[in-house]
Design brief:
Alpha-Beta Plaits, 2 domains, five-stranded antiparallel beta sheet, pyrimidine biosynthesis, zinc, Asp_carbatrfase_reg_N_sf, transferase
């Protein structure tokens, strides 16, 4: 298998095996007008197996979305064929419009224009709760 290196763009590395498609869809990478390589189930000494996404374009990555999906992802910014910056992620304290509240009595079900906002209630279990009704995201 041969995947070309990228001159300017972003490499998302150390994605938990099987989560690359979720990252692809959440970042809406299909809307980009550039090459995107998805490599899945790559052997990794550190993780056993991992996924990698290579994006041949420099665009604004939503770090909160990535941190929510998988806080272990490494974000490498590539400039002139070399890593110019490497970002480590953490669980975001709050996520906005990534998921919808499933509680039918939540105000977001009635007031359609309201943002769906969840806060990190428990970092250890990665539990998020709706700011309006306290329903656990699930």
């Amino acid at each position: 298998m041969n995947i070309d290196s990228i001159k300017n763009g972003i490499v998302l590395d150390h994605i938990t095996a099987g989560k690359a498609m979720e990252v692809y869809e959440s970042l809406e990478l299909a809307k980009l007008d550039c090459s995107v390589a998805m490599i899945m189930n790559v052997k990794s000494n550190k993780m056993g197996r991992k996924d990698i996404l290579k994006i041949d374009d420099d665009f604004e990555v939503n770090l909160d979305v990535l941190g929510y999906i998988d806080p272990n992802i490494s974000v490498c910014i590539i400039k002139d064929g070399k890593v110019s910056e490497k970002k480590k992620l953490t669980l975001p304290k709050q996520i906005k419009n990534i998921h919808k509240c499933k509680n039918p009595r939540c105000i977001t079900s009635i007031e359609q224009e309201l943002d769906h906002i969840f806060y990190l209630a428990d970092e250890e279990t990665q539990t998020y709760r709706c700011i309006y009704c306290e329903t656990k995201k699930g």
